[in-house]
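@channel sequence for tomorrow's demo:
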Amino acid sequence: MKTKLIFLVFLLFSILDIKAQCTPTITSPRLGQKYPGTILFCNVEDEIISTTQAYGSYQWYKQEWTWQTPNNNPWVAISGATSQQLTISGNDQLNYFKVKVTDDDCIAESPAVFADGFVYGLPAMMTTYTPGTYQENMGIVNVCNGASVQFDNIFPVVYGKHTWFRCVPSSNPALPGDPCIIPGVVGDTYVATSSGKYGFYACTEYCPDQCEMLDPFAFVEVNFGNWEFCSNLGTGETKSKDNDLKIYPNPTAQHLYIGKESDKTYKEVIIIDMSGKLVLKKNDHQYNQAIDVSELVPGNYIIVSKSADGKEYKNRFIKK
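structure tokens (generated this afternoon):
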């Protein structure tokens, strides 16, 4: 009886061991280094993901990320990905990965891991003005003397040490001694009190050798002076400007709203990327309708809106 009991216990543990081995888990050197279940890799590297256990056969799948919950994008079998290891690169960013395995009677699939592409996000800058102290004129912002303008890197968690500029440098990266460099400023925020064309160069915190220059089109030119509209400072009044048009949220990942109720309808809305390419056009757009920009590549864009009475508004926004 004792022999039978020992045999049954041994058999039970053997079965449990087989079941345990039939639970594939994905591992990777960079998996979970910054966020659980997430792989972050630098743009000059490939990343190898694999199962922690060996099986008889493998098939790797990927699913495109979406902001929507649940994610209804299909899982797609990766052609030729039938070994224990899978190599992914920067082109695989914003995708989930999983593997289905078989081994004798075992048929199972792993939990998914995410290849996050945020370290590849191009730098973007947010500009903050004090209401009533500025007006934009043909892409140049006139600012009242005594006021200040704050520039912020929108993705401070991504980028570490910064180099700030008061004009567009002559090379990328800027050579030491370039007159455009603002010396001694390395943080993700700069407050300007004098005229210039401002932008920055920064390296990612996670990948110190991965550095990016803010697109020169995204540099912001401010011109400080005693402008006519500055006479209203201290009176509580703010002069409106015909070319001011509210756009929100900015930055945005999916929906963008523009306009004001007094205009109600814009007979044409176009979005242009920083190369000047037309990427989206809408006719007869209502001010309270959402513009879906989820398909746009992350970066900086110009949106031009034409009201029913012929006024044209130009604004910049950032697609996350």
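heads up for whoever presents: The mean pLDDT is 82.
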